[in-house]
Amino acid sequence: MSDVSIIIPTLNEASCLGRTLRNLSLLDPPAKEIIIVDGGSKDETIAIAEAANVQVITCENRGRSRQMNQGAIAATGDFLCFLHADTLVPDDLVTVIEQTLTNKNIACGGFISLMTGATTTRWAISLHNYLKTYYAPLIFKPHLFVKGLRLLFGDQVMFCRRSDFLEVGGFDVNIPIMEEADLCLKLVQKGRIKQVNRIVQSSDRRVAHWGSLKATAIYLYIGILWGLGVSPEYLKKFYQDIR
Predict the structure, then answer these.
(1) Percent of the chain having pLDDT more than 70?
(2) What does the alpha-carbon distance between residue 222 and residue 236 come to, in Å, rounded to a whole number?
(3) Mean pLDDT of the chain
(4) How many other CB atoms are found less than 10 A from the CB of residue 227?
(5) Which residues cross the membrane (predicted)?
(6) Tell me, what's the pLDDT at 242?
(7) Quick check: pTM over 0.85?
(8) Among the residues of 122-211, which ranges form H helices?
């Protein structure tokens, strides 16, 4: 059996969770466990998770960081994989994670996110998100970039060792946005951050709602202001939840 625990924070994700769990059922080898941490869904999210026979935890205080931290505490695997409910992964996900973290110099990894919809692939935005992993830390944290810092985001399916995650304090529950980037800043003290050369498919629902130009502008605006040290509480108002 593998040593990978997959943690999925959810809030009203009935429209996509079933597909994601069917995708995870095809993993070869399978994950050690799949943990759904729900933040109080009012739709069929929990019923879908229970029908798929995965572990379900209800988080009293919603918030993606709190939910992922709670999942990490409950996990029994040596490796943690944080997955969004609208993201599809390759069937050798577990092998990729275990092989990557075999290198003790690597503390955290993530994938290349390809943003897709029912009829559209967002090539330009996907390319920008790929490049952002490198140029954002190079511009704003050059001293850490040379030590191996790369900035990963949630749709890139981040993974790390459970021991390292707990030692650095996990996700900061006081940060409403950019919590993954903040985790990268903490984990780089343990080793390099690596973007592996494999693709995961993420939903384009936010881009479809905003439009490509507005989405690109918002992503750039948030990223630049975050790099300049602007409060995540201020940045959150530009990044509303889309279901």
Answers:
(1) 91
(2) 9
(3) 90
(4) 16
(5) none
(6) 47
(7) yes
(8) 123-140, 142-145, 162-167, 179-187, 205-210
